[in-house]
Amino acid sequence: MNLRVYLIIIILSNAITEVGYAQTIQYSYDEAGNRDTRTIQVGGQKSMIIDGSNSTFIEELLKVEETFKAILGDIEITIYPNPNQGQMIVQIDNMPKDVKSSIIVYDLAGKAIYRKEYLTVYTDVDITDSPNGTYVLKIMVGKETSEWKVIKK
Asked: Beta strands of 34-108 (E only): which ranges?
């Protein structure tokens, strides 16, 4: 292969990589024209940063920085804040009644450091006694399972 083919391959691979990490930012405004939310989507994963008056309760509770969402069938799971200081909320919308549900938080060595069963719409998770670092939060609702990387700082 000649140099021209190598250059074309390198340029195309860089373009594909940049598209995979493309970032989209959307804003919403209240009736007075003030920005109240900002949604950031990076490479297919969605995170929401709440900045406005609609987040008063959450900010007072945990000083929210970022919110992460996932949809499992009809179930919508939201975790906030992440990163956190050891306290976070797991919100599960459209959870079927009388279905087994649980949360387990693992350290990176695979040791379970937190466990809670019978989740409600808003479930508090408290790992303040654990050292700062990265953890895996596993949520099970019925047969659906979701794993999240959470950061305690």
From this structure: 35-42, 45-50, 67-72, 75-80, 87-93, 101-106
Q: 63-153: what CATH class?
A: mainly beta
Q: Which two tokens stand for residue 33?
A: 């024209």
The upper half-sphere exposure of residue 124, i.e. CA atoms within 13 Å in the direction of its Cβ, equals 8
User: ∠ CA 137-141-142 to the nearest 5 degrees?
Assistant: 140
Query: How many angstroms separate the CA atoms of 21 and 150, rounded?
Result: 20
The radius of gyration of the chain's CA atoms, rounded to the nearest angstrom, is 19
Q: Quickly count: other Cβ atoms within 10 Å of residue 88's Cβ.
A: 24
Burial class for 2, CB neighbours closer than 10 Å (0-12, 13-18, 19+): exposed
- Cβ atoms of 116 and 103 within 8 Å: the answer is yes
Break the chain into its structural domains and give their ranges.
1-51, 63-153
pTM for this predicted structure? 0.57
Q: What is the pLDDT of residues 93-149, one digit of tens each?
A: 888 888 899 999 999 999 999 999 999 889 999 999 999 999 999 999 888 888 989
Please state, in angstroms and rounded to a whole number, the distance separating the CA atoms of residues 79 and 73. 17
